[in-house]
Amino acid sequence: MKLYDKSIQEMLGTLSEFLQVSCAGGFNPKNCRDTSSPGACQNSPEMGDQTSAGPDGSDAKACDDSSSASNQLTWPEASPSDIIMRSDMAYELGGGTKEALSALTLTEDQSLVPCDQVLVVGDDLPNISQDRAYARLAIVRVRADSLGEGDRMYNNIRGIEYVRYRVRPSGYMVRISSSNAREPVRIAKKALAEGLSFAHVGAHYLKAYHQNPLIEAVKLIFITDEAYDYKNLKALILKNEAITRTIDHALKDLKMDCNTCKEKPLCDEIEGMKELHFGSKKSSG
Q: What are the distances in angstroms from CA 99 to CA 30, 32, 162, 231, 234?
């Protein structure tokens, strides 16, 4: 499963570049911090006093499995009927016309996702006081060859994506809109007063992802830094989603002429996409 690896490298590459610039420019260390657990992925020597290795995993001194430690962060779960009204809301991540992005991408490469991590780029929830742009990235490492082939592979990918609909930390209401690719989040005043942070939210996501036996590790990245280039990130996320659509297209339309297919530029760029299509042709023949 190398189909998404280039997309992952592009996302993490731009994020690492931003962090190096922002940290060197004297930003507060909270702009580059790892909230997963002590001893998860240790500090990078290049980042001085920052509390996170680079989001691409480079320069990390060590990497232990942090899933059990993260899951010890207890925070109640909301019921499906719980709604945060505007009068109960402290602020909304991605509120109004601000960006509210999310992405899921998969890999089998341990170097890209060596362990469970919850990374925060920007302010944590208690340090935010008003609406701002927001993004959540989930980079998921699955067991080698576990996704299967054909429809099974596509369904497994979508099944992992749908985990986000089952994550409901109390006081953290995600409002997913698949039609316009937005994922704004309402934060309750009461939850903030009780200490809600991305560490708690991340623990809920990790627990939900690890209910799927195909998943080995997850790198969660929450971005709230107002200086971040969300427009560029949105373009990368749309390209990432196009990979999933193209997988479905390649599996279903086995008689298509590649020279006339609108997905040809993406297939030419993504390693393994042509092999997926032509392998499906052979198996169906």
A: 21, 20, 21, 8, 9
